[in-house]
Amino acid sequence: MDSLPVAVVQYILSTINNAKDVASCNCVSKKWKDSMPYIKSLYFPRSIFDNLKNGQTSDRIVMQIVSSILQLEDLVVYCPFTSTGLASWLSLAGSSLKNLELRMDNLVDHITTNDNPSKLDCLHAARNIETLRLWGVLMVDAPKWDTFHKLQSLEIVGAKMVDLALAEALRAIPNLTNLVLLGCEGLRTVWVELFHLKHCKLDFYGSGSSSLTLTAPKIEYLEVQGCSLIRVRETNCLKNLSLANNAGRVYMVDFGKLMALESLSIRGVQWCWDAINKMLQLASEVTHLYMKVEFTGDFEALLPFPEIDFVDFFKSHPKLKVFDIHGAMFAALCQKNSLKKVDSTFMIPCLEEAMITVRSPLNAEQKMNTLESLVKFGKKLKKLKIKILGMKSGHSSADDFFEEICRFRYMNQRLISIE
């Protein structure tokens, strides 16, 4: 490398980001050491300072490396640090930082937290950041932030929050386009009002009884887990929607017109039928539909789905290309009256792929009729996957039903597969 021009050496070394490698490069030669200030990214792994000696601290070493760089743009710190250390680094590099990722490690009781200012409060020094990722966050008080005008992406993984603190934090980020909150505990009534938001993924940990009110007229992708009441009124741009509640019950969904919706996924143990029915009505233009809801019922009692007319369902969803349904929805489509009178002109115009999960041999004849109807009326059907999951029966009906499915597959080998 001695024969290379200085500018080329600087360019090569500027791609190094691991802090241990940066420190090593400083020891190679004066030429290499003089190139280190031009790196743009720094990454401090979790265990980088596990064996410190002679009174050294992670705060001091991070400060030494950060202070040696002219214009740091990306900083990722997974190793332990204090709020004092964070404040000192950001006072130097905060104005040039564009992307900041921190493992906060302050998921502790508020009473035992003596940091002043808190780690969250220190972030205001990075006033020009565009992307912020935080791991292990305690947000019981609203962070003391000025407005982050350039911040477009906020991701928080693993957090204890209160409703008001989150609302105040989001108010300081008016131009956010991407919001990800995963594994967030303590939130009950969540209000999100972000007029530039396009991508939003929310995962609330707990009893599944949280409520969400989202105002985001430009939202295109929305994924929500753990809410029982969901209100999103301005949805003209929404293309992908995923709603799930693995711990509780979904009581109510309140959406505007889903004119642009292409993909809908609804999952959970129990949804009130009004909520399911409303989503199916609103999602009449979807091309991809995934349904894995086990039961309905407005109260504690778990009830099966009511009958869904096979013909009416596909007439109401004429653009459907990919259809993935779990046991309960499939059983609802397999009622006796569903296929009694089918118009000779009826067809499923766009369906190309169907994935059917069968968990019970009950009503085997109706289920076979429905599977055969998908093949018969699905003129563009290219793939039908039948998944047999946990089918339990004390008599031979399960074996007979499986034999019928195998015979059906044999007659349509290029089309049908069994898992």
Automatic annotation (TrEMBL):
InterPro entries: F-box-like_dom_sf, LRR_dom_sf
SUPFAM superfamilies: F-box domain, RNI-like
Name of the protein this chain belongs to: F-box domain-containing protein
